Amino acid sequence: MKLLVTGGAGYVGSHTVRALLAAGHDVTILDNLSTGHRWALQGCELIPVDLRDTHNLSRRLKKRGFEGVLHFAAKSLVGESKNHPAIYYQNNVGGTTNLVRAMQAADIPRLVFSSTAAIFGNPVSDLIDEDHPKAPINVYGQTKLVVEQMLQAVCESSEFSATCLRYFNAAGANNDAKLGEWHEPETHLIPNALRAAAGTGNPLTLFGDDYPTNDGTCVRDYIHVDDLASAHVAAIEKMNSSSGFNAFNLGNGNGYSVKEVITACEKAVGAEIPYTIGSRREGDPATLVASSAKARSELGWTPEHDSIDEIARSAWNWECHRRDNLT
Ligand SMILES: NC(=O)c1ccc[n+]([C@@H]2O[C@H](COP(=O)([O-])OP(=O)(O)OC[C@H]3O[C@@H](n4cnc5c(N)ncnc54)[C@H](O)[C@@H]3O)[C@@H](O)[C@H]2O)c1
């Protein structure tokens, strides 16, 4: 298929571009490079447009013959979203509204959207499936839920199709170490633990150890970024034969505590990682674990890198080699 990937210069987007290319698809990237990187483009054409630039966006999508869009472009820092809600709504909601209108004007019929576990808020069950109540507790999650609702309404009123993929915690890197996670600032546990170990980051602080979990630290579902990438390939290909609105939760179904993740990072690095215990972070539920049964059965998708040790090893491999690639 001839596909457009917004945010394809970012972390999850670039790994998905790699998987789409490997599956034989023709990929063009649209990105404003606000948090994305030129080194992640992998030889694809870049359309350097901001989704908020309605006019240019529409102009650049016309007459290109795109058959579908995978939409990763968004701002995704929970803390930042609290301090700058209007910017988050403008970028994530306004940007997606512009994208959908430009797609409709260019007759592009299908969209895969990067959604998030943050739309669920505080869990009311151990495993979070697609029907779990949606009650986001931060602005970032609100913007993603509003987009899901907008996409559902558009699908119900036209020939447009949208699939929302709600990731839990994306982690790890492709094994060839040519792509990996590089956010500034970095808020994710695994790269921060590894950088603390390597002396290239700040000392590690855990946000609370008094949660009602086995060791008192928060439990999360870490999913390897290459497994997210393969789910996107399956989702866009499935949309050739099915239409309308759909949503899938993507995780491993295994929860690991912050301390267990640090142990996995220590094994990968071969050294102890010192940390201090800080206070709880506002808006952090004790446990967030996905049920991905629907994705497994309807997309025929199976995560292939579900061990936390493997995820930590792949992230460490990237940390060790990324300096050669950040050009
Ligand atoms: N990383 C995770 O753990 C995680 C979890 C759940 C959901 N998500 C979602 O997945 C998507 C990708 O996340 P990521 O970690 O790869 O983020 P990222 O910051 O690495 O990538 C986002 C990309 O979008 C681009 N972008 C942002 N705003 C844009 C705009 N207005 N116009 C054009 N380009 C723009 C950035 O330059 C960047 O290349 C996001 O939508 C995020 O909300 C990520």
From TrEMBL:
Instruction: Tell whether Isomerase is among the UniProt keywords.
Output: yes
Q: What is its EC number?
A: 5.1.3.2
Q: What class of enzyme is it?
A: isomerase
Q: Entry's Gene3D superfamilies?
A: NAD(P)-binding Rossmann-like Domain, UDP-galactose 4-epimerase, domain 1
One of the record's GO molecular function terms:
UDP-glucose 4-epimerase activity
Q: Which UniProt keywords apply?
A: Carbohydrate metabolism, Isomerase, NAD
The annotated subunit structure for this chain is: Homodimer.
Protein name per the record: UDP-glucose 4-epimerase
Which species is listed as the source? Candidatus Paraluminiphilus aquimaris
